[in-house]
Specification:
two-stranded antiparallel sheet, 9-stranded antiparallel sheet, 11 strands, alpha+beta, 178 residues, 32% strand, 30% helix, globular
Length: 178
Amino acid sequence: MGKITRVKPVKLITGFIFKDEKYFNQSEIILSRKFGKVDFKSLILPFNYTDYYAKEMGSGLSRAFISFKDLISPRALAAVKVLTNRVEEKISLKGKRLVNIDPGYLDAARLVLASTKDYAHRLYLDRGIFAETTLIFKGHSFKDLEWTYPDYKSKEYLEIFSAIREIFLRQCQSAPHI
């Protein structure tokens, strides 16, 4: 029988898709009030991997990622997704989102994303929220999986997640009780 141990904290990350940078900035402010100081903010990248959001948000979309200094319990992910959905609703116009917010977490071994959509590779968390391991860290880099979104396989995104992982690892070294 395996010994039950305490779950280790993880690094909260959030991806944003938006047309106008002001909605990204507004979302970041709201989330930092809830989750604390942002310790990583990516460059704003073009989001041209899919037209899935075009009908609702238009064309010429951008993507950015942030991570938060304060670590969280992985079980908090469902509540985080519920909150980010509320922020999306708040920052909307005539029922259409002006920003899409994708929360997840990262640890030394993986990147996990939250979703409201159930598929065979997703596990139910709570409150209508599912989680999927989107990337795994193997060898010296993140590796994609069969269901990984095309943008999450890109060199730019993998570099972002590697940089956030390095921040996380430094946090773990400086606070060995984590």
